[in-house]
Write a structure and sequence with these properties.
The structure is a single chain. Helices cover 16% and strands 34% of the residues. The chain is an alpha+beta fold and 244 residues long. The chain folds into two domains: 177 residues, Gyrase A, domain 2, CATH 3.30.1360; 58 residues, no CATH class. A six-stranded antiparallel beta sheet has the order 10-11-12-9-14-13. Strands 2-3-4-1-5 form a five-stranded antiparallel beta sheet, with helices on one face. The protein has a three-stranded antiparallel beta sheet with strand order 6-8-7, with no helix packed on it. A hairpin with a 5-residue loop joins strand 2 and strand 3. The chain starts with a strand and ends with a strand.
């Protein structure tokens, strides 16, 4: 069982329309399984990421516990007089990469992330999720995903977390402009790392700032980089790095 996640029930006759106007993805995709999405500021920066889960007469929100209270509070501010209710659920989350249990859903971000199971006592497998994330460049809440993040810089599009045809949502204008009118100059990347360096350490090249070291697994890591400076022989603490 995954203990750092919280589940909320979203009920009411206007739940679909309400969420559709708030999040980066299309609520209609719930007919096919889980929907991965984010909530953004009006300036297009990250506030929260979560999964929407189809349920009978409800939509479940599967979210990191650390950001759950503030996210639900913000959603509640926007619902005004809409027929929408949001309440915490007793359900728990299980995860795994083996055979999918009955009632589980495929993780929509990447096939290597396996499945997610929602139940009172869900099935769960012990997996080195950091290694999986580093291998497939998957950002994590509070590590690669922070209040300074623009979601396209951390790969939300290939992770099936944003829909550019669904219409308006909070932060949509900035996100669409980044997609269609600009070339990303910074973002999440995989690096090979040799030596000791602490996650969160600044990365430099010839004394100039390049980015930040984030999650590490073995000799590979995720880093947020300025792409024009991300060449061979970057430095972080006593380690050398090379972008893959």
């Amino acid at each position: 069982m995954t203990t750092d996640r919280s589940i909320f029930n979203v009920t009411g006759s206007e739940r679909d329309e309400f969420l559709q106007g708030m999040i980066t993805n299309d609520v209609a995709k719930l007919k096919d399984g889980l929907v991965y999405a984010a909530l953004l500021t009006p300036q297009g920066k990250y506030l929260a990421d979560f999964f929407l889960v189809p349920a009978k007469d409800a939509i479940l929100i599967d979210i990191k516990t650390d950001i759950a209270a503030q996210t639900i509070q913000r959603l509640s501010m926007y619902k005004l007089r809409s027929d929408v209710q949001i309440e915490e659920s007793p359900l728990k989350v299980g995860r795994g990469t083996g055979p999918m249990p009955e009632g589980a859903f495929a993780d929509p971000r990447h096939e290597a992330l396996g499945w997610r199971h929602y139940a009172d006592n869900p099935q769960n497998e012990n997996t080195d999720w950091d290694a999986v994330r580093v291998a497939h460049q998957i950002p994590e809440t509070g590590i690669e995903l922070t209040p300074e993040t623009y979601i396209l810089e951390v790969g939300f599009e290939p992770l099936n977390g944003v829909d550019f045809r669904k219409g308006c949502y909070v932060g949509q204008e900035v996100t669409a402009r980044m997609k269609h009118k600009t070339e990303l100059r910074k973002g999440l990347a995989q690096v090979v790392i040799h030596g000791d360096a602490t996650p969160g350490t600044d990365i430099t090249k010839d004394g100039k700032p390049v980015g930040t070291l984030l999650t590490r697994a073995g000799d590979k890591a995720l880093a947020y980089l300025r792409f024009d400076r991300a060449t061979e022989d970057m430095q972080a603490d006593d380690a050398t790095l090379k972008r893959l």
